[in-house]
Amino acid sequence: MKNGTSWDARRYYTVSDFGRAGGVPALLKRLAPLLDLNIPTAYGSTLAEVAARAEIADPNIIRPLDAPLASTGGIAVLRGNLAPEGAVVKVSGISPAMIRHTGPARVFDREEDVQECLLEGRVHPGDVLVVRYEGPRGGPGMRELSLPAAILVGMGLADSVAMITDGRFSGATRGPCIGHVCPEAATGGPLAALRDGDIIEISIPDRVLNVHLSEHELRERMKNWSPPQKEIPPGFLRLYAHYVGSATQGAVLKV
Predict the structure, then answer these.
(1) Contacts of the segment 20-23: beta carbons below 8 A, 24+ positions apart
(2) Which 8-state DSSP code applies to residue 228?
(3) Which of 2, 213, 224, 237 would you call most buried, defined as having the most Cβ atoms within 10 angstroms of its Cβ?
(4) How deeply is 209 buried, as exposed, middle or buried, from its count of CB atoms within 10 A (0-12, 13-18, 19+)?
(5) What are phi and psi of 185, to 5 degrees?
(6) What is the pairing mode between strands 162-165 and 177-182?
(7) What is d(CA 136, CA 94) in angstroms, rounded to the nearest whole number?
(8) CB atoms within 10 A of CB 242
């Protein structure tokens, strides 16, 4: 029983099931009270016209707004002194053991370094792996850290080790992996101030991502900070790194 609605917990619906239930047009129809339907689509019609033509073939899959499968969605935004502009986590991929976690930071300035640490067995239960300078500007291009996330799960550490980054994760990522930390380290975000051993607090139910440091301590650490220099080949990627804005705003160019 979820929110007063019975459902078969043994049944796992697929994208094909979603399509047979009406797909995206039917979902738009269901969400219509929450959307601005005057937005045009690539086909020239508005969302309102798409929703009006749609049929919801299976309400057990595309459920009524007053009878959701769960009280919250599968994605959450966390905030705190490590993510003043927010960070994103796939709640549905986290085991109950890790919805709250506090542990020491292990800080890495690029994806390859955290992968090496994992594969060499130098990660310990309780650690919080911090992978910074992989955001839109730092990557550049907001690198996807799905490989270290998969290694974490494959090594059986997803119930005891968390990972946070200003880069991004795949939608298929499992485990306590928090991405899109904003502002990113390359622009002087709080991740840039972290050191090994700093205590990081993660609370998914409370939507919190904090480091146990005062604002004064964070400011003091950043006084002589400068981002690491990366060799970026000339061309569009170098321009992107120079002009791209925060992931919070869509990581678009600001010229």
Answers:
(1) 20/57, 20/58, 21/56, 21/57, 21/58, 21/61, 21/62, 22/54, 22/55, 22/56, 22/57, 22/58, 22/62
(2) P
(3) 213
(4) buried
(5) -60, -35
(6) parallel
(7) 25
(8) 12
170 is catalytic: yes
- With beta carbons less than 8 A apart as the criterion, state whether 193 and 143 touch: no
Helix boundaries (H) for 15-166: 15-20, 23-31, 47-53, 111-119, 146-154
Q: Could you tell me if 131 and 169 are in contact, meaning their C-beta atoms sit under 8 angstroms apart?
A: no
Exactly one of 170, 203, 214, 246 is catalytic; name it.
Answer: 170
pLDDT digits (tens, 9 = 90+) for 52-91: 999 999 999 999 999 988 888 889 999 999 999 999 999 9
**57, 47, 48, 50: which is closest to 22 by C-alpha?**
57
